[in-house]
């Protein structure tokens, strides 16, 4: 593994190795406390962030490394100077580049011109670090990931894409339930279904919440992606039947609920469920740090 732009690029063994290492270091950071000693990681943000910024910053420190935060006060990457020059300059100083960007093509260009590893911490198409933390959380609570059935409910987006590919690579079953017209990218669905078939998993898409029956966990995300100015009132009626609430949890039989946050309480998920006994949402948030640290260890110490 030289970079992490999408989980499509990783093998099942690589994904499992990251998850296993993340679980191990979560229990004890002592063996890796100096793993990144003398190394610096640039964390670049075109978009606002709480979990991504803090989890990388503190996580890199836990590994003995130094995080350099760059916000894009001068606009999107490539405006003040080219992405090529940005990547080549950073590569002379830092040991890795973690980038949260608007456009996946920016990451491709960073990877093309950087001589250090590039990690996608979110783009318009994927959110691989989130999906790794999510399946780490599912392993902690459900065990064998090949036996897990995950139900995603809401708007098909970058998180959905990464969850689909993670589930497919791991041989898990996944159900994606969305309102008509809000499904994930069709080409990615076809590709993920083919990968799932290779590994003994399944991917089912539906507009009917009845398809969620038998899921071990339900997963919610915001109904409006970051940067979308659509008023919540304009989509609430269409999405309301897809809210994760106690009735949907009971209908599906799911024991656990996940949400990548930030969450809009009483919109895509109720507080009763979010704060209830089946919520592993804060475990997810914590596990972002451990999963990301495992990625950095794979990239910088193997």
TrEMBL record:
Residues 147-298 form the Aspartate/ornithine carbamoyltransferase Asp/Orn-binding domain. Residues 2-140 form the Aspartate/ornithine carbamoyltransferase carbamoyl-P binding domain. It comes from Ferrimonas pelagia. Its EC number is 2.1.3.3. SUPFAM superfamilies: Aspartate/ornithine carbamoyltransferase. Belongs to the aspartate/ornithine carbamoyltransferase superfamily. This is Ornithine carbamoyltransferase. Keywords: Transferase. PANTHER family: ORNITHINE CARBAMOYLTRANSFERASE, MITOCHONDRIAL, ORNITHINE TRANSCARBAMYLASE, MITOCHONDRIAL. It is an enzyme of class 2 (transferase). InterPro entries: Asp/Orn_carbamoyltranf_P-bd (IPR006132), Asp/Orn_carbamoylTrfase (IPR006130), Asp/Orn_carbamoylTrfase_sf (IPR036901), Asp_carbamoyltransf_Asp/Orn-bd (IPR006131), Orn/put_carbamltrans (IPR002292). It comes from the Bacteria.
